[in-house]
TrEMBL record:
SUPFAM superfamilies: GTPase activation domain, GAP (SSF48350)
UniProt keyword annotation of Isomerase present: no
UniProt KW GTP-binding keyword: no
PROSITE patterns (UniProt xref): PH_DOMAIN (PS50003), RAS_GTPASE_ACTIV_1 (PS00509), RAS_GTPASE_ACTIV_2 (PS50018)
Chain segments annotated as transmembrane: none
Domain PH per the UniProt entry, residue ranges: 196-277
Domain Ras-GAP: 1-142
Keywords associated with the record: GTPase activation
Record's protein name: cDNA FLJ60904, highly similar to Ras GTPase-activating protein 2
Amino acid sequence: MMKIVGGHYLKVTLKPILDGICDSSKSCEIDPIKLKEGDNVENNKENLRYYVDKLFNTIVKSSMSCPTVMCDIFYSLRQMATQRFPNDPHVQYSAVSSFVFLRFFAVAVVSPHTFHLRPHHPDAQTIRTLTLISKTIQTLGSWGSLSKSKSSFKETFMCEFFKMFQEEGYIIAVKKFLDEISSTETKESSGTSEPVHLKEGEMYKRAQGRTRIGKKNFKKRWFCLTSRELTYHKQPGSCVYALLWGFSWFSVKVSLPLIVTLVNPFSNITVVYGFSH
């Protein structure tokens, strides 16, 4: 669910930084066994810390971009954790952090192509860099690891690296972020919230009114599907050509792999679109 509802949130939060990391050739290897000839482990630590800090600071400042649907879920999760464990104030935070950091941000960082944040599978060195960043971000976001001044790393080199982040400032930043995304006070209710960005991509649109089948009948267009409407554009970022679902289309069916069926009962027209991966 978070992958679909939070897709746009990930894109605006992580993609610019992940693009820079994937396009860079900086080494971030800090495992002594895996160091290449000529590598300087101290320089690599600085590279890795720079990327971790950049991603972490962006994430903890992104609460206003978090979809309202996710905030509502985090709020309910936090309330249930508080009721179930009233004597442990840490549980309400770890319950939320385990979802938003462990199952959302950390996974997107280590595998950006599966979240449509990168067009292709990264090379081996980049995968290793993203893995180290993801491990650190995941542990930084873990309320238990920060509040109890211990980490869950099994590797000695990761334990040593994580000591750089065991400062009060990181604990405060994580707590503030978790408070903001699990509060109902900072956002309006889901019924009036911003539309959820579900999918976008290229599809071929068949021209209406043509009876003969041919190349001219089909045009490649960029479609964007949200929880409120389906629109298409000539290309990404260009003006909207048409609003297909919103006011004139009244019956909508979405199935996976993503096929959108639109039915207009007044004109007895059915249009079917299919997104490619």
